Structure formats: structure tokens, C-alpha cells
Amino acid sequence: MKRIQLLVPILLFCCAIGIAQEAEKKTVTSIYNEALGDRTAYENLRQLCKTTKGRITGSTKADEAVEFTYRLMAAMHLDSVYKQPVMVPRWERGKKESAFIRSARLGKKGLAVAALGMSVGTGSGGLKAGVVEIGSLSDLEKLGMEQIRGKIVFFNRPMDPAMVNTFASYGGAADQRTLGAIEAAKFGASGVMVRSLTTALDDFPHTGVLRYTEGVPKIPAVAVSTMGADLLSQWLQDDPELSLFIRTECHDHGEVGSANVIGEIKGSLYPDQIITVGGHLDAWDLGEGAHDDGAGCMQSIEVLRLFKELGIRPKRTIRAVMFMDEEVAQRGGAEYARQAELNGEKHYFALESDRGGLLPLAIGISAPAERLVKMMELKRYFEPYGIRITEGGGGVDIGPLKKFGTPLSSLIPDSQRYFDYHHSANDTFDKVNNRELQLGSAAIAALVYLVDLYDL
Amino acid sequence: MKRIQLLVPILLFCCAIGIAQEAEKKTVTSIYNEALGDRTAYENLRQLCKTTKGRITGSTKADEAVEFTYRLMAAMHLDSVYKQPVMVPRWERGKKESAFIRSARLGKKGLAVAALGMSVGTGSGGLKAGVVEIGSLSDLEKLGMEQIRGKIVFFNRPMDPAMVNTFASYGGAADQRTLGAIEAAKFGASGVMVRSLTTALDDFPHTGVLRYTEGVPKIPAVAVSTMGADLLSQWLQDDPELSLFIRTECHDHGEVGSANVIGEIKGSLYPDQIITVGGHLDAWDLGEGAHDDGAGCMQSIEVLRLFKELGIRPKRTIRAVMFMDEEVAQRGGAEYARQAELNGEKHYFALESDRGGLLPLAIGISAPAERLVKMMELKRYFEPYGIRITEGGGGVDIGPLKKFGTPLSSLIPDSQRYFDYHHSANDTFDKVNNRELQLGSAAIAALVYLVDLYDL
User: Fold this and answer.
1) Which residue from B181, B271, B189, B251 is spatially nearest to B223, judged by alpha carbons?
2) What is the spatial distance between Cα A213 and Cα A229, in angstroms, rounded to a whole number?
3) Domains of chain B: which residue ranges?
4) How close B129 comes to chain A (CA, Å)?
5) Would you call A369 an interface residue with chain B, using a CB distance cutoff of 8 Å?
């Protein structure tokens, strides 16, 4: 009987909604048809990937990506295209990293590594030390300073493969990368090697930002490929006395000027109310940043193209925002919100696409209850495309808009493949499928169209 | 009010089902956990792809694939592993095809082509003729014999990109490939060139079987890459008088012996009732047959591994079947059903996986109404994995079991990427993701476990 009690309100709720208007349905269909039949976003992504590979925040390539997207939008006859200046960190990897073990029993054997973002370098002389393998930060306490001092701590806890949502699995393992250097240094470690955060078993090291904190020595930290991590673990069983050599020549160069890039279609009725769709323009230096997050950027621009192409005149101003510096210090998102506050902007709705240009399965939304309920009603428009509307959305770049009460949303694609590419040299254009990318573009455009149309 | 009327029976139905047993849920979870944490099926697929590339039915490579899968299952301590002999066609592509245009205005320009399966060859001298571009078979009638006689008919209707389900889009364009040679020959054409059946825009020709019919001349037919098709269409606009040269040296060698490969776990309670899970072992000669259909084969074997590994004792006999010759004459599936009839086998349930090793989104089932309703109740077990149970299932290889009243089912993965690979050199192992493959294996194993357990 519980089930009946539960279903009655749902049933009444369904009746209350009524049947979606045919005209709106047709527009949603035309958005999807146009997106699936077009290759503009895909070809733009190809260009971005091939000409600005390695566009880490603060780099020349990031500057080129700013120019590329600025020109792209400038050629689209939008109502406004501009750069929003922002200061960002500039960290450089320097010479390609080197890592190998030396062992009386096993000889010399190499490992595929990459310095973690913002890590200090070992300098050209490198770092040589014994290795302690552990599975979690709490193991440090168990081993104690005696066993850790002077050693390289090897964090080897894999992402849990059993979790269907790999973002949850990533969340369960990422502390090793973000906090490992701080925690290991507290116990006197000389360096850190972290198993790459990927569900793949291959030889790509996956980088990502680490943190340091005041009062704790900054020690060098690298990611090792998952195949390398498995090997090192085996070697340590064969010879616990082996020594590990790591050389990284990365440097922190302080701050430099950069920019968010913004394109707008002005609202016809409420031009001062802003709907933001965005992705981040910076990408880790190892790859092309195709899925992370060239895809989200090109989808955001595509939303504007779809509106223009189909002659959809939004009531509110639609902005495509290429956020700078998501990967390192999240300065672009912070500056966007700061400028919004300074200028007294009204942010009606925001969506971020930063989970790869893969098959979209859902749109997640965080919003005040009343608005959320209305937005959930939109599901009927998305059912033909296999997309659910779920509670809980946002993103690193749009997160700072939360203080304005803006509903925050995210495109949620399938996550199975994402961490194969994430933060590695494997994140290249050929891994993106035009149809998957465009199903995402269409979903975002349709959502924005409906939220604006129905004043949700 | 209509909505309420509709919901009441659904509501009562939901109540009737009751809550799924915890023990069964745990077994389903353990199936998924084991599948996602294991790489056996993936590594077996790698071996199959790398050692038996080009395993077209009747070929030496197909024989090697028979041996490979036989040995694979023989090493698994199953209750029975055997080959089921079957006669299959043997068609050989011969020397790599060549195609180019010659035009007074445009000069000589090459095109990426591949003979369609079972096509006659042009012979080493090749075929040279003018070109007529058309969009559909019915255009032949419109043009008439005058304009077609002696020409090469160029079928250039693309798969409709707006269809979200690319299999539907494929179905809407495939007549050009399967029937184009027959229909064009009726109007006196000397050859046929067909736009590749893919949603990708690239330079891979995609082959696939064509038909000939008694009393109509057999004319040579090739697939041209989609980029090639777009170019040729443009060239024809620039110079309608251009001539096209095609050379294919393919041959039909009649019939040879081959085999289906079958592995079994005997049922503990009803050993004479058979549940079949299968894929097809043959693949087009151009690629590795990774998605089509090495993936389905390895998933089928994985179902047996999962049952063994987790100690699940099925009541009924579970068979993994590697069907031979799905691509050309479908002899393996026909022989399997013929032997079933000869031996008086009871086929309780059958599932085919032949839509690629991509993210599974649904399981489709065709069954008598009463059994179908019960099977649909299983959806609760699959919801955590994003899999729906939908009406309508089957497959080319298990299709002949329909006459026994056996419920037929198919694994339905996402279709966006599938036709990028289908029947082309692009169907390679690196396009398969272990997690996607294994989510499919787990879904099949869980379905078989539940259908058997609940006597559905």
C-alpha cells in the first residue's frame, strides 16, 4: 500500500502538467535535427585541439585559445563578443619528466610519469630515494615518521572499478593526488608518486592539480601510469630495497594576465537577465583537451549558433562563456561572478558542460525547490533523446554564481570512457564523436530555450 | 483524466510485483562488480582482434577464430565445449580495389572504395564508364534505361543524421547496398558505387553484403567512403561527363566447411532446457571485427565465466554460441536451429549481442505476452545500471529459434558510434572500452540469471 500512497501525488502531479505544447516540441525537434545534421562545432573543436594543444592556464597556447574562440564568436554576428580579463597562475612543466627504479635484483627500469600540476620540481639533479607504497592517506599515520622520512611515498589506491559512475570513483581516490604531497611531507617524505586517476590500464600518466599548504614543505609529486603503478608495486614486492629516481623540472612563474571569452545574444524581453552556458578553455598541457573541456566550450558556442540558425529569439540574454583556469586556480569562474556582482547583473540560470563530449544521459539541476519542480517537468521534452532531468547540478566555473541564488545545472554524459582521457596525452580530438558531442549541444540548447520560454 | 485512467493499472501492477528479493539483488550486484573489476573478456577480445583480423566467413582467419574460441572455452572447465559443423560461402576480396575518375576538366582523382561482399569482380582490366548519381532505387525508374545503360550508378543517399537511433537510419539507407546492384542492372547499368553506410564523414569505405537475383546480370558493386562520395558528387557537378574507373578482383569460391563454436554449463535442474547467449564470430575482412562482433562473442563467453567465477549454478543449461557466417549467408544461425530441431532440444530463452560493445542502454525482448510481462518486471534490477527493458528483441543468428516459440532478446547499446566502425577497417580493438563491454556482459549475465531463477 505504501507504493499506492507514493504514486497518488505523482499521478496528480502528472495531470497538472498537461500536455506539452506542440510548437515547443517542434522547436526542440528542430534544435536536435539541426545539431545532428551539422559539423560546425565538431570542426571547431578539431581546430581548437590541433592548434592550441597543451593550453594550460597562463600559457601562450591558452592565449591562442582565447584568440581562437574570440574570433570564432566574432564571426557569428552575435550581439556582443568580448574578453573578460583575469589574472591566472602560470606553471610550467619544463623538460619531460624522467623516472626509473634501480635495484640490485631487478636492474634499472623506467616508469611513465608526469609532474602533478603546481608541483615543485626536483631540479635537474633529480630526487633519489627508497619507496613506501600505501593505499590511503591514513596509512601515513600507521607507518609513522620513522618509516616515511626521506622516502618517496607511492600512493597506489586504484579508482574503484565497481562504481558505475566513474566520477564517484574518481572522488573516492582523488585525495591521494590533491592532498598526498601535503600529508606525506608532514611525515618527512621527500617526494610523492601517485597512481594515475583513471579506470584504464595503460601507460598514460594522468596529471591534475595538487595542493600545498603554509608551514608544510613543498615536495615534488608525480603521477605514474596505471601500468607503471602495477609494475612498481610488483617490483617493490620483489625488492623492497629498490630506489626510485624522479626528475621533474617544473616551475611556478607566478601570475599572468589571461581572459574569459564571452559571446552574447541579447534578450528580446529581459536583456538584463542572463543565462550562462559554459565550459573551460584551459586544459592540461599533456593533451589536446578535447573532452576536458574543449567539448564543453564548443557545445556552449554551438548553443548560440543553434539559436541564430533556427531564428530563436530568447527573452533573456544568452551567454556562452569560455572560462579560463578551471584546472589550476579556478580564477575565471571567480572573476566572472565578481564582475557580475560589480555590474549588478541578474543571473537567471547557468549550465556548465565539463564532463566530456560523450553521450548525454542526464541534465542535473540545483535550484530552489519551487523552480526545481518546474524544471523537472521538462523531462517529457528530453525522453525521446534518452536524457533524464535529475536533481543536483553545477560546476567549478559557475559555482560562484550560487550566491546570487542562480539555479546551477550540468550536462551529465555517460562517464565510462571519460577517465581514460582525463588530464592525459590521451585526451585527443579523435576520441570525440560528432553525434555524441551534438546530442549534448542540442540538450543544452533545448533546456535553455525551454527555461527561458516558460520563465522557469 | 486520460492520464489518470492510464496510470491506475500501472499503479496496481507496480504493487503486484512486490519488492525484489535481497539475495537476488546481491547476486546481480556481484555479477556487475566481478565484470567491472575484471579484464579477461577485454584481453580475449584483444587477442581475437589482433590474431584473427579479417576473419570473413570461409577464410583461414575464420578457421583460426574457431580454434581460438574453442581453446578459450576448453580452458574454462565448462561442462561441454564443441564445434558444430556448418557449410558457409567463401568469397574473397582479392587484390586491393582501385577507383578513380578521369575528367578533361578535373584530371585524375582517386576514391577510397571497397567491393561489397559477394560482389562479382570487374577483373584485372577494370570497368570504365560514365556515372549517374541518384538518391534512391526509385530514381532508376525516373531516369530510365536510356540514361542508365552502360553507366555506373552512384547511389548517394546518406544515412539520415537526425535519427537518434542510428540503426533506424541505417535501415533507411541500406537498400542501396543490398539491392542496388540488382535494380541498377535491370536498367542496364555496368556497375554500382554506393555511399558508405556510416554517420561518420571520413575516408573509410564500409562494405557489407549485397544480393543478386536469378535472371538479372551480376554487376560489380563497391562502397565508397563518405568523403569520397561527397567529392564525387561535387566532381559530377563540375563535370557530368567524367568517367569512373573501378577495378575489383573479388571471387566467389563456393562453399567450404566451417563451424559454430559452443560452450555449455549444464543445468542443475532442467539440463535439457537451453538458454543461448551468442554473438557472431565471422567479421568483414577489412577490419578486426572488434565491435562487429568480437564484442558480442567475448561477452557471451564472459557470461559463462561470470557464472563459474561467482559459483552461480543455473537450473537450465547455459550455452555461449559463437555463430559463424552472420555477415554473408547466415548459415550458422540456420544450422544451430536445424540441429536443435533434429535433436529435439528445448530452447527456453535466447539473447544475441550484435550491436557493438558499447554502453548498454536497454535489453529488448520479444516473447509471448504472458512471459514478456514477467520479464519486464525485471527492470528494477537493471535501473541502477541505466538499463531499460523494452519490447522487441532478437538477432540474425537466434532468429531461426523463433519457430520454437523461444523468447528472443538483444542487448541494445548506445548506437551513436557504432556505424563509425561497422564493416570497415576502422572496426578495431582500440575502439572498445572495457567498462562498456563489461557493462554489457554483466547485463546479459544478470538477465540470464534472473530469467532462469524465476522461471520467466
Assistant:
1) B181
2) 26
3) 18-88+255-453, 96-253
4) 33
5) no
Task: Give the HSE-up count for residue A425: Cα atoms under 13 Å, Cβ half-sphere.
Answer: 11
**Does A441 reach chain B within 8 Å, measured CB to CB?**
no
Q: Of the CATH numbers 3.40.50.360, 3.40.350.10, 3.40.630.10, 3.30.420.40, which one belongs to the domain with range B18-88+255-453?
A: 3.40.630.10
- Size of the A and B interface in Cβ pairs below 8 Å: 80
State the Cα–Cα distance between residues A128 and A151, nearest whole angstrom: 9
Q: Do domains B18-88+255-453 and B96-253 have the same CATH topology?
A: no
Whole-model pTM: value is 0.94
The CA angle B172-B177-B180, to the nearest 5 degrees, is 105
CATH architecture of A95-249: 3-Layer(bba) Sandwich (3.50)
The per-residue pLDDT for range B223-259, each reduced to its tens digit, is: 999 999 999 999 999 999 999 999 999 999 999 999 9
In this prediction the ipTM stands at 0.93
User: By the CB < 8 Å criterion, does B19 face chain A?
Assistant: no
pLDDT digit string, tens, across residues A34-70: 999 999 999 999 999 999 999 999 999 999 999 999 9
Q: How far apart are CA A223 and CA A426, in angstroms?
A: 15
Q: How far is B430 from chain A (nearest CA, A)?
A: 11
Identify all chain A residues contacting B32, using CB atoms and an 8 Å cutoff.
Answer: 162, 164
E-assigned strand segments in B116-242: 127-134, 152-155, 191-195, 221-224
User: A435 CB near a chain B CB, below 8 Å?
Assistant: yes
Q: Tell me which fold the domain A18-91+254-453 belongs to.
A: Aminopeptidase (3.40.630)
- Residue from the list A33, A417, A433 with its beta carbon closest to the beta carbon of B433: A417
Interchain CB contact of A6 with B (< 8 Å) = no
Chain B contact set for A436 (CB, 8 A): 416-417
Indicate yes or no: CB of B435 within 8 angstroms of CB of A32.
no
Q: Do B7 and A7 count as a contact with CB atoms less than 8 A apart?
A: yes
Distance CA A359, CA B418 (A): 13
Task: Give the distance from residue A161's alpha carbon to the nearest chain B alpha carbon, in angstroms.
Answer: 5
CATH code for B96-253?
A: 3.50.30.30
